[in-house]
Write a structure and sequence with these properties.
By secondary structure, the protein is an alpha+beta fold. The protein has one domain: Alpha-Beta Plaits. Helix content is 19%, strand content 31%. The chain contains four helices and five strands.
């Protein structure tokens, strides 16, 4: 399942998507938790008793600004959270 965390406003769509099927099988020892300098990721137990990453509630409506340090308007090549997630479960929509 793909879980989307974020929002849409007049300037665009700002979502972080986490593929929970890939996250469950994480071989990176939950590296996304420590890779994000803002600490936006945490582990929760889903409805199927699987431990998966998600975005903390306080960040979900401000992703554009919270991710700006790692993801400026131009000139970035990779993001710490997507690079750390070796299964490829974490994606950004913008």
């Amino acid at each position: 399942m793909i879980a989307n965390y974020g929002y849409k406003d007049g300037s665009g769509d700002y979502y972080i998507s986490i593929d929970t099927d890939k996250c469950i099988e994480c071989g990176a020892n939950r590296a996304c938790l420590t890779a994000c300098p803002k600490g936006m990721f945490e582990i929760m137990t889903d409805d199927y008793d699987d431990e998966v990453a998600w975005i903390k509630a306080q960040f979900r409506k401000s992703l554009k600004y919270d991710c700006a340090d790692c993801k400026p308007a131009a000139g970035y090549s990779s993001l710490p959270c997507t690079t750390a997630c070796t299964p490829g479960a974490v994606k950004h929509s913008w």
